[in-house]
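Q: What changes when iron/sulfur cluster is included in the input?
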Amino acid sequence: MSRSNKKWFSLNLSRKQNDDSGTCGCGKTSGGCGSHSNDAEMSEEEFYHAAVNASIGDEREKDGFDQVFDVKMDRRTAFRKLAASLLIGAGAVNTSCSMLSSDESKEKAQIDWEEQFKGNYKLMTDDEKKNTVDRLVRSYQLRTGKTISMSSKNAEEDVLFGYAFNISKCQGYMDCVSACVKENNQDRNSQMQYIRIHEMKDGEGLKFDEADDNYYHEVPAEGHFYLGTQCFHCDNPPCVEVCPVQATWREDDGLVVVDYDWCVGCRYCMAACPYDGRRFNWSKPEVPEEEVNHNQHYLGNRMRKKGVMEKCTFCVQRSREGKNPACVEACPTGARIFGNLLDPNSTIRWVLENKKVFRLKEDLGTEPKFWYFMD
Amino acid sequence: MMSSSLFVNRSLCLIVFCMVFFSCKHEDKYHGVMEKIEAEGEHYQGVSLSSENYLEGVDTILISEGGHTFLIPERKNQIKLYACTECHSKPLAEMQEGDIKKAHWDIKIVHANEKAMNCVTCHNPSNMDELRSVTGMSIDFDNSYNLCSQCHSKQFEDWKGGAHGKRIGGWAPPRASMTCVNCHNPHQPHFESRWPARFNTQKVKERE
Ligand code: SF4
Ligand code: SF4
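A: The predicted holo structure follows.
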């Protein structure tokens, strides 16, 4: 196991997950040993709760980002919190050998602690990835009572994802946009959408400044064509280059992904992207519980928080299982083609080799893996 | 004097060499992603992923056309009341005589024009169970793409390669693609115009 060589410090508050946590200095393996609580002013449970409350208090419901940044903090509270954090550590050690009824809140605190101080997903070993995913699944279960499945599946050998979009076929129905919002648990309040469909006038070339990406009339409109944009998963992505904390990177299968827990929300990447591919959570993203897609990936459609960047991941939770992204599956015209660029027999390769394909702003050298073509 | 100028010369060489060496992006072996794809695709070993599970419940047939082998949905089991001859047992010419009740009167053909297309351009009037080509050769309902390709040869090429026709299942092999009639109603092959699935009211507000 990776516990010994973790890149972050963790406490073993939860006894179930730890083989030897049932035993304490007194040698008993079950029940409180009693030797500590007798001479303490507070009982261990009280002490523990007081410490947790002082440390994270009502923010326990909030997500990790809120806990750190979304609280007004003056010097005094900052000191208090720091002290309380130390206290919670001490408290945790203190209470670790007594049987308490509040195992759940303990577990929550344990998860919060470990999540707070975990490392960058990009640098994690497979075991560490699995552990954080397990923690997030458990945390979701403790908080909502619902079970989700979350994958930490890595890129497959011999796979490089690519995408082609047929401009002649797209009818502007926006079924892809709709499917994407649902699949990727995008914020319903701000109506975040990764995909934009631009309605352009025939015969005038690609004029994005004159195009309408929020039309509402019967489509296709006479004399217009439709062109979709989203993150192009550049092979030489400028967004990755500028991230000060390496919270966004290019995976081996070519997907450009974001670790939502590592992102500090500086939006440098958004400014660096020449394709308007990134979306920022200005407010706490909300998805009605009954609409949440429970089939998730750590780097994909898991629930995000306020103040982090997100974008299209070519539906990493689907594509790494061999499925097509939700937009490809939803498109009724077959305008969207997805596949493995390294497979010489794949349909995407045939398109690249036999159709007149082009990409947007090719001169920038970003090498987007998203091509356009016509019939 | 000599040795010091030699030293300057040498260090200059070294600096120039370093500049040249480090200025080229040594992490990028290829000029562009296309070159990379072609080079790395050469030792393609195949992937462990498969679309087979996602094709469950779809009856498919394997076809091989122009060097491309792939699956398409079976057609005959999708046609209600196939075989047609269970009702239309007599040849069309005989059925059109007299006062027999009309069948399929509700089908309107919006496909090319009357000069080019009527029912028997594609249906075999003497055997309703099959289609027929312009030269009178019989074509199975399952392979109806052979009928469409008589006129739409460009689309047929694109379809074989995979640029036309939506994939079924996933991107992973085996490839399964929709056939012509899965998306286009052969009697009215155009796509209907309709309202878009979404309208972003928030975007309207932001841009006001
Ligand atoms: S399209 Fe933008 S966000 Fe996506 S990889 Fe390229 S630069 Fe990054
Ligand atoms: S917003 Fe997040 S992902 Fe983007 S550059 Fe800043 S830290 Fe990196």
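Observations recorded in class: Chain A touches chain B through 65 residues (CB under 8 Å).
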